Each structure stands twice: as C-alpha cells, then as structure tokens.
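A protein record pairs a chain with a discrete description of its three-dimensional fold. The following entry can be read in just this way:
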Amino acid sequence: MEVVGLALTIPTTIDLCFKYGKILLDTCAVFKNADAQVNERVLRIQSYWKRTSVQLEFLQRVWKSLDNEHQEIQVQILQVLNGKLNAVISKLDRQANKKWKYVLMKESLDEAIDELGTWQRMFDPSWFLMLKVSSPFIDQELSKNPSPDSSVTLANTLRDSLRLEPTRKIHVFLPDDELKKARIEEISLASARLIQMAGSDKYQSFQVLI
C-alpha cells in the first residue's frame, strides 16, 4: 500500500474501530443485570475494550512516527478487529431480539470474549515492536498517560527497560519467597518479563537469565 493510501486509511480504520466498540458496549448494556454469569461476561468484554481503546488512541497519536511496513501491518490488524467486532455485534443483536434466551446469550457473549482475546494476542507482538521504535515522540506520548491502570503506562515501564541506560534501576536477584508472591507476565517477542511485587500497584521489568 502506498504511503498516501496508508495516511488516508488509518484515520478511517481507527474511527471505525471506535464506532464498532461503542456499539458493542451499548449492545452488551442491554444484557447487563440479567444474572451474575451474564454480568461477568459483560464485564470481561468491557475490560477487553478498555485496553483496546487505550492502545488505539495511542496508536493514532504516534502513527506518523512508524515506518511504512509497520503501518501496513497495523492497518491489516485493525481491519481484522473491525471484522470481528462487526460479526459479534450482529450475533448479539440477533440474541437481543429473542426475548433474552440466556443460554444463547451466554454463548454469544463467550464468542465476543474469545474474538477480542484472539485479536489482542494477534495485536500484542506489533504493539511491543512499536514500543521498541527509537523515537522521542513516542516517549513524549507515553508520558501523557498518568493512569497506573493504563496499558500504555505499563508499556512505558517496558520501554524504559529496553533503553541502553534505563532511568529506573531495580535489583536483579529477588528472594524465592518474594517471587512466589509476585505476579509475573510475559512480554511477546522478548526475554524480559514484567513483575508486580506483592503489596505494590506498579510493574517493573526484569531480564530472564538462561
């Protein structure tokens, strides 16, 4: 795809993602308070979309700093997201008109959860590759997200760990009992891991030594 074509495509593609995301949340709101199991499913969908929307907003702001190849990949991945959102919305709409048949409703919500999870796993590698791009503009945009729960803030920690001289230094070796209590998450396409120590609301990065 030519550069001009990419520049024209991405605003429309991301805007369509946000449009479908809002429709999905509005559709799920119809099912809310049906029962505890349905509520849990709706909450998971809301959580998935919150993370996705934060990442989309960030991608929209740093788009011009990405190279052409990376932009092409992102456009294709976002088009997949639009396709998945459109499909699950159509199915949920059909269930909403069937007088709340709970079994079918739960199956449709489960499908929406699976589709969002599948897309997120597809998106994650390109997300982390984007964070490795050497660009002061990306650093500047990351600093605009102060929320400790934001996936972009978590990405800021990761980006800091990938610099040659990280601005935050942590201990390399941790006691076994502390590691057992900690929450550890893998990072796609990297040997580093993110760790959240017990009693802390912040993540730090560490390198896995083999």
